[in-house]
Amino acid sequence: MTEAGSFADRVKNQADIVRVIGEYVRLKKSGQNFTGLCPFHGEKTPSFAVHPVKQIFHCFGCGKGGDVFSFVMDMEKCPFPEAVKIVAEKCGIPVPRPKERTPEERKENQQRAALIEIHREAQSFFSRQLESTAEGRAARAYLEDRGLNAETIAKFGIGYAPSGGDALLRQLKPKYAEKLLVDSGVISRDQSGARLFDRFRRRITLPIANESGKIVAFGCRALGDDLPKYLNSPETPIYSKSNVLYHMDRAKEPIRRQDFAVLVEGYMDAIAVARAGIGNVVASCGTSLTEPQIKLLGRFTKRVIVNYDPDVAGQAATERSLTLLLEHDFEVRVLALPPIGDKKADPDLFIREKGTEAYIKLLKEAPPYVDYLIARARQMDLSTGEGKQRALNFLMPYVQRIPNRLLRSEWATRIAQQLRIDEPVLRAALNKSATERRSEVKVAPQLVGKPAKQIERRLIRMLAEAEGFKRELAQRLQHGRLYEGLETEKVFAALIVAGLSDEPIPATEIGTELGERERRLFFEILFEDAQEPTWEEAESCLDALRRRQIEQELAKVQKTIEANPSGAGLRELLERKQELMKQLTAAGQPG
Ligand SMILES: [Zn+2]
């Protein structure tokens, strides 16, 4: 609940719910709303809607709904104040310093800020080294040899860690405590614990930024044949390698715009692909793709082209990533680059040798993952029964993950043909495991409200939104008790209280006072495409409710009369009946 004039209130007024939710869900304009796949329940067709004018969201599938804050609270699993802060940051609204914090929280925040500052300083140190030292210039020549010009070096913040062993340490030591330097991961402590030294030495440095563009780690490539080829930052309070995708900070906008991402293995691949004009590229960097990385990516697109190295490790990584991506309902294509001469080509090498256009052409033609897998299976020895079985065992787990039944069946036919396997045998194997697949989340039936009658829906909409007359309408409904006994009675009651209040009360706040079933109904009504209401329409709806009220009483009187035709009070009952009949005529015929 936001207090008028509070910071939360200000954020809510300035925030664009479509933009904020758009960072988590791919939204498409549909009429006056935006729709997308609900992030709160598994679904294949969008039933999640965001209303830009009313600044609310609602899922017609699982019934979740609310304002921008309740969305962020649910997505980030955070309390209200944190959600306000997140929304403010996303919308560029300066957040006032919170007054109260636990000492631990304050300490943690200070530590994180200091670690980020250390990375910023290390970054400019490494850049300077590349520019202005003899060693650095040699590194620069190496980079130029790999086709990286000054512009690229500057854009990707590529730098150089000198071989001395304590150059960075000397730079940082006067300003930071030893423990903090070691915690940052750019400085290491030797085994005796007595001596500190630079973690990265004689290496090209590539800054790794978190999603919001702050440098949180470095990936460092050896010059020449030093081992390991890549040395990265360790896990620190600000960096966990399984949560970060390289280049995500720059790629997220292009990914959202183009609705697909290119996934490569290494830093140099990502840089090469991005330089080729394909900005929507991210790299998993040395790890096989993790669940948090997939979730991060899934906030921007559900379509991926995997372009890993064609070597054995790359193939294994491709196949592991496929499994995870399919489990998260990604649409996956695989680009396996052809060898150049006798060299296996990673994206970096391929683009350098064959050029941007050749790469883009192959990217566009990248086949769906099943084609890639069939091609892989065909490389196995298919001349024997056991060989075929091995190929089938290799393929089956992927095919079973195809959510669409028709598609799955189509692939079964193709696999049978390509591997020359008896189709019924293959189908039997497929069906057996298909029943074990996880299914979509079922919506609890008791949460789906019965459709309220059209008149009630219209009146509810007017009470919520007809600025010109909603107060008058609330008074009439209240005065005549016209909504009592309706299925939507509770929604009316809450809206009438709001309508009679002097302060404007937003829909989401009314929603929080309703039960789940009512809130759901209320939000559905708010999302209906509907004409501007007029007072004439309101009056005719009121008349209809009035008639309904009279008819109900009339039926009751009639029943009492029939139950006891000679009883006392018959005269009064008959008089009441007459009166009601008259009222009914006056209330007019349903029009
Ligand atoms: Zn939902």
Fold topology:
Elements: H1 7-14, H2 17-22, E1 28-30, E2 33-36, E3 48-51, E4 56-59, E5 65-66, H3 68-76, H4 80-90, H5 103-132, H6 134-145, H7 150-155, E6 159-161, H8 167-172, H9 178-184, E7 187-189, E8 196-198, E9 203-209, E10 215-222, E11 230-232, H10 248-258, E12 261-264, H11 267-275, E13 281-283, H12 291-298, E14 303-307, H13 312-327, E15 331-334, H14 347-354, H15 356-364, H16 369-378, H17 385-399, H18 405-419, H19 423-434, H20 454-465, H21 470-480, H22 489-500, H23 507-512, H24 516-527, H25 535-563, H26 570-586
Parallel strand pairs: 12-13, 12-14, 14-15
Antiparallel strand pairs: 1-2, 2-3, 3-4, 4-5, 6-9, 7-8, 9-10, 10-11
Helix pairs in contact: 1-4, 3-4, 5-6, 5-9, 11-14, 14-15, 16-17, 16-18, 17-18, 18-19, 20-21, 20-25, 21-22, 25-26
What does this structure look like?
It is built from 26 helices and 15 strands. With 591 residues, it is α+β, with helices and mostly antiparallel strands. It is globular. The strands form four sheets. Strands 1-2-3-4-5 form a five-stranded antiparallel sheet, with helices on both faces. A four-stranded antiparallel sheet has the order 6-9-10-11. Strands 13-12-14-15 form a four-stranded parallel sheet, sandwiched between helices. The model is unreliable at 436-450 (pLDDT under 50). The chain binds zinc ion.
